[in-house]
Amino acid sequence: MSSSSKPVLRTLIRYLGVYGGWLVSAGLGGYALLKLWEAITQTFRVLFPHSWAYGAVHMFSIVILGVGWLLGILFLEDHYRAGVRLGRLGKRFLRVTLIECVILLGALALLLFVM
What we know:
By secondary structure, the chain is mainly alpha-helical. The protein is built from three helices and no strands. The protein is elongated.
């Protein structure tokens, strides 16, 4: 392998890391938000068992969380790509993964409490 192809290979590996991390973050974030949606709807059902508004909360919350997830993954691509340029992709990925895990654990704890 020539010395001129090493920077290209290094850049390729870095950007594969960006999109691999992006896919993991998108999947984990999607799962966390689905569990959060489930927790929101179950909590509403327990607090207001005979409410006509359950259907609205059920549907609007999934739309709001879905739009938030979509905006989040669009932001993450830029955030991770900037991390490659600054040499901080690993730290950025760990920070985002920690936030997603906290959201997931909070949703699961709320589900455990409500059920």
